[in-house]
Every structure is written in C-alpha cells, then in structure tokens.
Amino acid sequence: MKRKFTPLILILIFCGFTAFVILKYNKEIKGDVVAFYPLKDREGPSALLPEWATIKENGNKMIRVIRDKPDDAKTALSLASLYVQEARITGNYEYYNAAALHYVEKVIVNNPKDFNALLLKALIQLSQHHFQEALETADIAVKINPYSAFIYGILIDGNVEMGNYEKAVEYSDKMISIRPDIRSYSRVAYLREIHGDMDGAIEAMKMAVGAGAYGEESTEWCRIQLGQLYENTNQMKHAEMHYTIALTERPGYAYALAGLSRIAMSQKNYEKATALCLQAIEAGNDFGFKEQLAKIYIQTGKNTQAEKLLESIVVELTKEDETETGNNHHAGIDLANVYLLQSKPSKALESARKEYGIRPDNIDVNHTLGWIYFKTGDHKNALKHIQMAMRTNYKHPEFLHRAGIIHANAGAVDIAKKLMQDIRQPDFYFYPELKDEVSIAMNGF
Fold first, then answer.
1. Averaged confidence pLDDT in the chain
2. Could you tell me which residue, 197 or 431, shows the higher pLDDT?
3. Which pTM does this prediction carry?
4. Comparing C-alpha atoms, which of 253, 258, 252 is closest to residue 239?
5. Which residue from 125, 85, 79 is spatially nearest to 106, judged by alpha carbons?
C-alpha cells in the first residue's frame, strides 16, 4: 500500500552538537522527503532472510558515501539499483521508485549520456507503467551502448506493453544473442506465451530457472512464472511442485504462497486457499493478492467480505493513478478488472478506455475492453476489440473463454468452437463467473 512519508529527524540526546549533525546529514530536503532516502525496515518473512542484513549494511554504507561525496555517480547508481531491487522484494514501489529516481535524475543532470543512469530510469518508468516514456528513455540509452543485453530487455518489455510485438521479438533476438541468461530466457518464454506457443514458453522458462541461482528473488520469480504456465495448461501437479520449491528456497515468498492458494482453490479446498492467500497478503504488498482473495470470497459466497476488499483495492489503485508528483502508477486496466469483479461495467469501461487511449495495440487491454463491451451489451465493439486481442494467438484460458463467448454471441460458431477446443484448463476455479456465460454461449453446439 502506498504511504506518505516524512523526514526522520534523529534526536541525538547525548550529543553536544546535535544541530550540526542534523544539518550535515539532512541538509538536502525537498518538500517533505529526506533526499537520502534511508532503507525502510522490511516487514514479514522477507525481514528474516539472511540477505536483508547484507543489503541493509551495503545500503547504509552507500548512503554515507553519498553524504560525503554528493557527486559520486557510481555509488549513487549502485544505491538506486539497490532501491529498485528492494521495491520488487518488498512491494514498496512508491517509496523506492521515488528514492531511485532521485539519485538517477541527479546523475543524468550532470551527465545526460550516462548509460547506466538512463537504463535505471527506463526500468523505473516500466515499474510505474509509464511504458512509452520508458521506451523513449531506452531508445536514448541503446544509441549510447548497443551491446547491452539489459537495455534490450527493457526495450522488449516496453514494446510488449505498448503492443509492438514484432519489435519485441526483434529485440529478443538481439538480447539472447548478446547474453543468453535468466533475463533473456524469461523474455523469450513470455513472447512465446503471447504468441500461443505454450510448450515452447514452458521450455524457455525452465531454461531461465536453470540459469539462476537457487533462492535468489529473480530465480524464484521465474519459477513462479513457470508454475503459472503449468497452471494455464492444466498441469496442476507441476505447478504445485514449482510453487513449493520456490517457498522452500525462499521462505515466506508471497508469490509462492499465492500460487499454492490457487492450487488449493482448484482442489476446492477453500479454507486452505483463504489461509494461504492471507499469508501472501501479509508477506507482500501486491494488490493482486487482495484481488485473488476477493475471488475466493466470491466463490464461497462471502460477498460482503469480497466487496469490502475490492473497495479497498479501488481506493489504493485510484490513489496510485492520480498521484501528481511524477511518481504515479498508471492503473487503468487494473482498476477495470476490479470494477468487473464488483459488477460495475460502466466504471470498468471508463478505466479501460483510459488505458486504451495510452496503449491501443496491447492485447490485454483489448481483451479486457472487449469483454467489458460485451458485459454492457455493445456486441459490435466487443467483437472488434476481442479480434484485435486475438492477433498474436494468445491462449490464456480466461482469454479463450471470453473470446469464445463473444464469437458465439456474434454467430461465429466455428471460431467459438475452435477457441473452446484450444483451452487446456476447463475448470472454472479461478473465474467461476464465466461458467454460466460459457454454458449459454455453447448451448446447441
């Protein structure tokens, strides 16, 4: 959850020159934000990981160096990189994105062609869902250093989010030719998934996991993605195995807990699914875990709890989307999906159209918008957008269900049948609201 933060004033009771120390260490204040951005103490299971002591020690050392040498660009960028990593681990994106961006921008002011600073800036912009801005920053960086695999990774991600899939594939070929590693293999996997090659995606994600060090967050993140690929192809035992390994290698890992919650949900063990999801929420600051818990509540008839939870997500996402500091997080499509769960299609349409105005070629945006139009009775626009979403041959089961329903409603029976046949996960455990829709649409097939 996003929080407003204020300066930490250190009162040194037993020190005779308190004012001097405060002036020296907090002299750079902008608004109500201390420019040095101390590391925030971790909460939950991640605070118990051995890595935290090392990260905290290294971070504090770098802050001390920058206090003494404000123009030390190398240390500033190392600290910014640490903040980016900490944001991903803790979910405290608002604070750490602002912290990282503070140091990165200072380096860029002094040296507009600092490659590493531009790379980090683009990475932060991706995190904020400022995808077009990230591409613009990355385009500057790649001209400075066209042989960095990392910058091509950012170009892949930005182009995927903007719906430039051919360009993303082109950059993927460049990235993997420079450095075949966990980062490049994982992006190959994602592009294969987008283009409907689920078996190829699984194979590439296995290679990504194999290229990483066990227990590191990046490795276990890829293992979670592998588990989700198995989920989406109805290979639940494999998915459960990888979520369990991730939780063993990284105790308390929120994404592994959420994955195991979905497995329990598929087994209709809703008590276990609820408990695991609550653990994920406690361990990680990700609104997606709350959305997942709301779906469990809906499935089990706990509509009051679901609505309360969904409304809290709306408040959180609206705040993120409306921040005017330049550190906002575009959340239009996320809000649209929450409004759909609340059965508020008009609100969902408003949010989805806002996102569509930013990235009209993205298949996820078109898929969501098409479904919202269907729910509002605008079947012409529903078909238009779902067909736009189908252009890469994406085969996520929820997408295939929705696309099949829309085509069946439009009288395109053969296409609807083919879409339904491509679904490898027939169970409706995670989107039960589609079960009746599919039954109606497929009636008489």
1. 88
2. 197
3. 0.86
4. 258
5. 79
